[in-house]
Amino acid sequence: MKVVRRIFDTSRKGQKIVTNIYSPPAASSSVAKAGSKRLTLLITHANGFHKEIWEPTLKRLFSYQSDKWHIDKAVAMDAYNHGDSAVINRSNISNEELSSWFENSRDILAVIRQLQEKKECASGAQTIIGIGHSWGASSLLLAEITSPLTFAALVLIDPVLHEAMKTEDGFIKTTKKRRWQWDDENAAQAYFEGHLFFKGWDKRCLDLHIKHGLEEVGGKLVLKCRPTNEAAVFLGATYSSSYATQNLWRVRCPTAFLTGETSLPGPPEYIRAIAQQMPDGRHEVMNGVGHLVVHEDPDRTADNIIRFFDGFAPKINSRAETTESVQFAAAAWAKL
User: Fold this and answer.
1) What is the pLDDT of residue 165?
2) What phi, psi does 227 have (nearest 5°)?
3) Listed residue (45, 293, 272, 297) closest to 161, CA to CA
4) Closest CA to 142 of 127, 126, 159
5) What does the alpha-carbon distance between residue 81 and residue 48 come to, in Å, rounded to a whole number?
6) Closest to 280 in 3D by CA, of 326, 234, 316, 328
7) What is the pTM of this model?
8) What pLDDT shows up at residue 163?
9) How crowded is residue 117: how many other Cβ atoms within 10 Å of its Cβ?
10) Tell me: the pLDDT tens digits for 80-103?
11) Class of 2-163+237-334 in CATH
């Protein structure tokens, strides 16, 4: 894959969003067949992680050849308080106590709007498919609920969707106390590889988490997403998740859900019921993994996404109204 780093404005003054824009290797960039749907992917990550976690999955997607669709590019975002975005925005997120998921959704729409203004997506035969995991998946839903037909389709991997969510004070306190700094890379590597939480991860994803999830500060390696920011996102679920769940009827694009077999935030039977109630929803369960589907098995994640794309392709059309839809969203968000 080829990758270019791009920085965009958030929906708020004084903050930035760092993205990686991935495109196929030169050898495969010319294989798009006449009549195939050209896709731009908008990628969002789970709470506590970062855009590079998606790279193994994206490599497999780019390697797949289809006569139905072709990926032109994938725009992977670091949320404003995660990854490289957090590094840039550090001065105004250090004391963050609550991060509403609506902020992440506003930023998704802001990035898409800026891409459109530069004619880098959703032009001609191109369409945008949102792919997100956990918090990132719920944020994509909030964006589509507010701005219908922003996306030609959505792939939502274990979104956090609940009719009502309670603030778990103990969980928030535990998150804030998690270890977040190490003396050097060897110490960090030993910690992550030996920690039970990371035991089931694909090695590629774990290596990427260590490489891109840490920064050097004062001679120490520290998490780019500080525990306080991760806790702020968890706290922000209280209203945001229920709003997304209660307004799924507003989603007008084809939507696919991929659930880990042993996921706790969204058990398969619960997500399956949600998918069945949507106008154009589908659901698949990935056996042998939990909530961190992308991290545990990126190859099978990609294979499921490929099957979703094959099903979406006949329904995907060029959406000339997308720009107007996203512009309309700015006024709608102001009322929330």
Assistant:
1) 64
2) -55, -35
3) 272
4) 159
5) 9
6) 316
7) 0.91
8) 80
9) 9
10) 999 999 999 999 999 999 999 999
11) alpha beta
